[in-house]
Amino acid sequence: MKSKTVKGSRAARPGNSVLGKGAATAFLSPSLLFIGVFLLVPAFWTLFLGLTDYKLVGIEALNPSFIGLDNFAKALQDPQFLSSLKLTIVYVLGSAIFGQALLGFILAWVLNELSPRVRSAVELIVIFSWIVPGSVVAFLWFAFYNKEEGTLNAILGVNIDWLLDYPMLSIIIFNIWRGTAFSMLLFSAAIASIPKSHIEVARVAGASKMQQLRNIVLPSARSYILTNLLLITLWTFNDFGPYLLTGGGPGGQTQILPIFIYDSALRYLDFGYGSAIAAIMLLLNLILSLIVLRMSKKGKK
Amino acid sequence: MSFVSIEKITKVFPGGVRALDELDLEIQDGEFFALLGPSGCGKTTLLRTLGGLESSTSGKISFEGKDVTFLTPGARNIAMVFQDYALYPHMNVLENISYPLKVRKFSKEEIDKRVKQASEALSIEMLLDRKPGQISGGQQQRVAVARAMACTPSLYLFDEPLSNLDARLRLEARTFLKQLQRELGVTTILVTHDQSEALALADRMAVMDKGRIKQVGSPAEFFHKPANIFVASFIGSTPMNLLDGVVNDGKVVIGSMSFDIPAHAQNTARTGDKVVFGVRPEYVSLTSSPGSGIASGVVKVTENLGTHYLVTADCNGILVRGTAPDGSEPHMGDTVHLKPESVRTLLYNKTSEDLY
């Protein structure tokens, strides 16, 4: 009896797995195989392609040659790439940080005050915008923004071709509409995780709603906020959705990086250059993630 | 004049649960008052209504004669200590204690002075730069009390502040809370489900059930003269003997046993009344021979309570509990004769459930 309990406690300690290394490896290997084949290999293949002049047609398609960092040097001098990077930053700041995160938090904060029934009804509606397939959403917004028969013009009583005259604003609003549900849900969970008594101590002290928000809610939700900002920044950075609305146009005004990569690689068939831009994006994503992780670690200390 | 005055307070939650039912209560200035009751009896709702965290459906609350029924919590000049202490994990102890003072816009010198006073009174001055996660449960509890104290409120509301501490620490914290309340002399209302805590701490207390107050009085009154069957069965570390019987010719007849009518009921209990005869096991002792006013039976269980044993005997199908001193306890299967101390017996009306 006694030896049994000792054995059990030893097995529970990390490093001494219950299954043994062989069985654990066997269980993990299918998923590792798939991750390797479909995620890691293409990623490294992209990195490698970025160092070549590989094209889909022509002589280089048959016999690509290794050109080192030429593609990267080209990118840094390419005005189209630099403008695309700038557009991406505007798109991320506008639709993710100021749009989804801010609006999502306001929604979560306001919903928290309402009755549970109203809350779940609103949440259901908002989540709907998130679960509808992207192509369907794009079609809906195409109809919404249409100049002749569009809903938006009908509501405002104007006659504007939104996607032509305000393309960046249009895709930013489109992405806010599409992604706010996620931030709202995450922030709702964050606010719900704050013990009621924490707010009540502030109420008894006479703190206003704004003081409760600033002093209690925001610091308590800090790690949720950072996680959310990281996720939506990465998603928006890599978002290809606007292509469905504008195709990157007019005149490259909405040609954010994912669209630029698509155009370079698949429209102009320059795989090497497209891969190099993708590698730069990967690097930017990594830097962003590291900054946020560092920040959340600091908060925990 | 009473400090807190509660008149016909009713609280109905959405969904129809009646947490407080036309409840009246007066609490005196400087009193340590305990609200005791089983879970769901409405004691916490009453405390939160006093604090303004819940609004009452109807009724009136006044502090020092001033109507506060519709005031916000911040305008009531109270401080609350919660069961989970509600310390902010992102602030250190110093910031936690000074937070309510900052909200109330005290000057920096005043805040420093008060934090120093409170933390010295609770001997936590060496913890000021720690985060709540880095100190023990007992220390967290002290910080929570210090935060309440630094506000110098006119009323403390304690919502089970000791129930998260382990047994030994709880006893220490209890003594210390009582001492602190004496020194500060501020009216304090404590909610607890632990009767020994209420009996030990309170000057006066109330037992609640289903949104109503069943009895208000001093701890001694509760122990010796529970006003009704509910309180009688609720109060006491060992359950009171409550035996169904009938009054017949100056005696209380319970099965084949009969006892003298308790002194307090001699003029009011009439022949034929259905009654409940109550006596605490602590006041039932073993005697050598059977007779009138003595319950004889076979020992079913003996429980060691330290200085004495709790003896449960089967007296012709009726279970009677008494106590025997350590060392002279009977054994299972022995025949014993249990004699209640006649001045300690109580008689309740079976229909109204109230004390005669």
Compact summary:
Chain A is mainly alpha-helical and 301 residues long. Chain A has 16 helices and no strands.
Number of E strands of chain A: 0
Count of domains of chain B: 2
Query: Domains counted in the coordinates of chain A: how many?
Result: 1
Strand content of chain B is 25-35%
Q: How would you spell out the order of helices and strands of chain B?
A: EEEHEEEHHHEHEHEEHHEEEEEEEEEE
Number of strands of chain B: 20
CATH class label of chain A = Mainly Alpha
Uncertain ranges of chain B: none
The side-by-side strand order for the widest beta sheet of chain B comes to 6-7-8-3-9-10
Q: What overall form of chain B do the CA principal axes indicate?
A: elongated
Shape of chain A: globular
Proportion of helical residues of chain B:
10-25%
Q: From the alpha-carbon coordinates, what is the Rg of chain A to the nearest angstrom?
A: 25 Å
Give the full name of the CATH homologous superfamily of the largest domain in chain B. Answer: P-loop containing nucleotide triphosphate hydrolases
Spatial separation of the terminal alpha carbons of chain B: 31 Å
How far apart the termini of chain A lie comes to 43 Å
Mean pLDDT of chain A, to the nearest integer, reads: 85
CATH class of the largest domain in chain B, named Alpha Beta
Largest contact between protein chains? A-B, 18 and 26 residues
What is the helix tally of chain A? 16
CATH topology of chain A: MetI-like fold
